[in-house]
Design goal:
The complex is a heterodimer of chains A (325) and B (331). By secondary structure, chain A is of the alpha/beta class. Chain A contains eleven helices and 14 strands. In chain A, strands 3-2-4-5-7-6-12 form a seven-stranded mixed sheet, sandwiched between helices. A five-stranded mixed sheet of chain A has the order 9-11-10-13-14, sandwiched between helices. Chain A is globular. With 331 residues, chain B is α/β, with parallel strands linked by helices. The chains are: A alpha/beta (325), B alpha/beta (331). Chains A and B meet through α3 and α4 of A and α5 and α6 of B.
């Protein structure tokens, strides 16, 4: 693939910059995004490029920032809000769930709410129980919201562009642990929300995943390959909507599946996928569909504890072996 | 002022009183009709009537221009009617018909008309306030010269988003008119037991201009709004207007209001904004028959809207399901 090598976080910044260059109605809102360039530097340089009207440092008022984005979106702007850690969306749930998600529907389709909420999720940084959570399943449960979760710089760029262009509210979930990851980014490549990608082809088992555990699954696939087991890895890239067709097509070839994610397993994204495979893919299954995800506990702080919490390559390998046994 | 100037000013005031009364009597007729329709089970769900608060709606709307926007509350019928929402579409919505402004998907608590800058009534107390904040920000960024109006009740003074919004509106000098309809009641509790501060004190804490007005005097509300709006349009920053009024009906229709003193409710007739406006109109030279005619016109408009709603079809479930997202149902 052609393109420029950049880090994931730089791809986010580049997508914001390129979008703002093309569309004057795009404004950025968030805590420390302007003068400081963002807690993770995803908005670095944008204040200088577009000024304080369009790149706005907000007070620490998540509820009203996100609500203001709804009002601005209904009044001709396309706001992109940064919530510093995904954990903090709890403070903005009315804005997301009762306002942004429902405005189009409950106003009878008079208009839509073209806003993006960017938020980094994920652990691995010893950030503790209130700065590490993966809460995307909550939002995928709400009709009216879209939920996107890119794993690499190219998708971070292309899917953020697509999210900003989307007429409906999109929650764009980034991963703190992936921000430094490098990859080639071709700005001419377009992505469609709701389309998965087969990241690695394989014939024996389908690994369905998204976000940082894409790389866990790729490592597991490498390890399994040494035993002669060829795992197909599907990066969903988008949780709501999610690409059933690609997953079911893969299952029709492999007849076995394991769903892997960093978020808590119980009532999670994996539960929806497994239920769909059990329902629509029942005739294709040669083994129960397994899940590998976080235990039912808050994300712990200490490195030793967080390692126990995180989804490991070994756990994915073990689950694949179990489906093949 | 010469006698002639005084006469001209008097005529202008009388014209404004007539226009305000025309709006108020429409709101009153709508609310009374809804009360009847609700009792007869023709209106489903929950409705919250603004009987007794019509002067606020009429007065604020009289100061708004085409490019302005507003977000309102669960008790928002008056605000959207005063803004000029289509009365047929309004009744069709509240009666759950296909031709409703929101195609029967929102109902009383979500009436909206984006073409009029009405960003919705709202079922969540206080939620319209930061939505109006964002709308005001959009007016500023887009340089529309528009003003966003946030209507809220005194119950919303205890909501955090009001405090956050006051802060941001002041920091950014946004064209946001915050209109509190203070009717003394936070749902079933007197606001005096719910809120330790005052709105004036709150506005002062953020350095925001504030005025209090008799919210049952439409001309006074109109004057106060017209005094506030020019500064909003020229970048002076937000304005808080507290309108003291009274809630005549219960929190919701069907609320027996057992928590309220019967004498208090009986005393409300003396404050009735329409009765007061009628007296002022007649003192200004109108005849009782002229005022009666305004009432009759409004009643006729409402009856026609109800008839149209009754005749309308029910909404399509499939159309609703397909309209959760702009580009149809999810994959």
């Amino acid at each position: 693939m052609s393109g420029t090598e950049m880090r994931y976080v730089q791809a986010v910044a580049q997508a914001l910059r390129d979008s703002m260059e093309q569309d004057q109605s795009i404004v950025l809102l968030g805590e420390d995004i302007a003068a400081a360039g963002g807690s993770f530097k995803a908005t670095r340089g944008l204040l200088d490029a577009y000024g304080p009207e369009r790149v706005r440092d907000t007070p620490i008022s998540e509820a009203s920032i996100v609500s203001a984005a709804v009002g601005a979106a209904l009044t001709g702007l396309k706001p992109v809000v940064e919530i510093m850690f995904m954990d903090f969306i709890t403070l903005a749930m009315d804005a997301l769930v009762n306002q942004a998600a429902k405005a189009r529907f409950m106003f009878g389709g008079q208009g839509s709410v073209p806003m993006v909420l960017r938020a980094p999720h994920g652990g691995g940084l010893n950030a503790g129980p209130q700065h590490s959570q993966c809460l995307e399943a909550w939002l995928a449960h709400v009709p009216g919201l879209k939920v996107v979760c890119p794993a690499d710089p190219q998708d971070a760029y292309a899917l953020l562009r697509a999210s900003i262009e989307d007429p409906d509210p999109v929650v764009f979930v980034e991963h703190k642990g992936l921000y430094a990851r490098k990859g080639l980014v071709d700005p001419t490549v377009r992505a469609e929300i709701g389309k998965a990608r087969v990241t690695r082809a394989g014939r024996d088992v389908t690994l369905v995943t998204y976000g940082a555990t894409v790389f866990t699954c790729l490592q597991a696939a490498d390890a399994l390959a040494t035993e002669g087991i060829e795992a197909e890895v599907i990066d969903l890239r988008s949780i709501q909507p999610w690409d059933r067709a690609t997953v079911l097509e893969s299952l029709s070839r492999t007849h076995r599946a394991v769903v892997v994610h960093e978020a808590v397993q119980a009532f999670g994204v994996g539960a929806e996928i497994v239920a769909t495979l059990a329902d629509e893919g029942f005739d294709e299954l040669d083994a129960p569909v397994l899940r590998v995800a976080a235990p039912f506990m808050p994300v712990p702080f200490a490195s030793s504890l967080e390692q126990g919490y995180a989804v490991s390559v070994d756990a994915v390998v073990a689950a694949v072996r179990k489906t093949l046994s | 002022m010469s006698n002639k100037q005084t006469q001209l000013a008097g005529a202008e005031v009388q014209d404004r009183r007539l226009a305000l009364y025309r709006t108020m009597t429409l709101v009153r007729q709508v609310e009374q009709a809804l009360s009847r329709l609700f009792a007869d089970s023709e209106v489903p769900g929950f409705i919250h009537l603004s009987v007794g608060q019509e002067a606020v709606a009429a007065g604020i709307a009289s100061a708004m221009e085409a490019q302005d926007s507003l977000a309102t509350t669960h008790r928002g019928h008056g605000h959207v009617l005063a803004r000029g929402i289509d009365v047929d579409g309004f009744f069709k919505e509240i009666m759950g018909r296909a031709g409703g402004l929101c195609q029967g998907r929102g109902g009383s608590m979500h009436v909206a008309d984006l073409s009029l800058g009405i960003l919705g009534a709202n079922g969540i107390v206080g939620a319209g306030i930061p939505i109006a904040l964002g709308s005001a920000m959009a007016h500023a960024v887009r340089k529309t010269q528009g003003v966003a109006v946030a209507f809220f009740g005194d119950g919303a003074m205890a909501e955090g988003v009001l405090h956050e919004t006051l802060n941001m509106a002041a920091l950014w000098k946004l064209p946001l008119l915050l209109v509190c309809e203070n009717n003394g009641w936070s749902e079933f509790s007197p606001t005096s037991r719910q809120f330790a501060a005052t709105l004036e004190g709150l506005a002062s804490a953020f350095g925001i201009a504030y005025a209090r007005v008799d919210g049952n005097d439409a001309l006074a509300v109109s004057d106060a709004a017209r005094a506030a709006v020019p500064g909003l349009r020229t970048g002076n920053g937000p304005f808080v207007l507290e309108c003291i009024t009274h809630r005549v009906r219960g929190h919701f229709e069907g609320d027996p209001q057992k928590y309220r003193d019967a004498e208090e409710i009986q005393s409300l007739a003396a404050h009735d904004p329409l009765a007061r406006a009628r007296v002022a109109l007649i003192e200004g030279g109108a005849t009782a028959e002229q005022v009666d005619t305004l009432d009759a016109e409004a009643a006729g408009r409402v009856e026609a809207a109800i008839a149209a709603a009754r005749a309308d079809t029910l909404p399509s479930f499939e159309a609703a399901l397909a309209d959760v997202y702009t580009h149809g149902a999810r994959a």
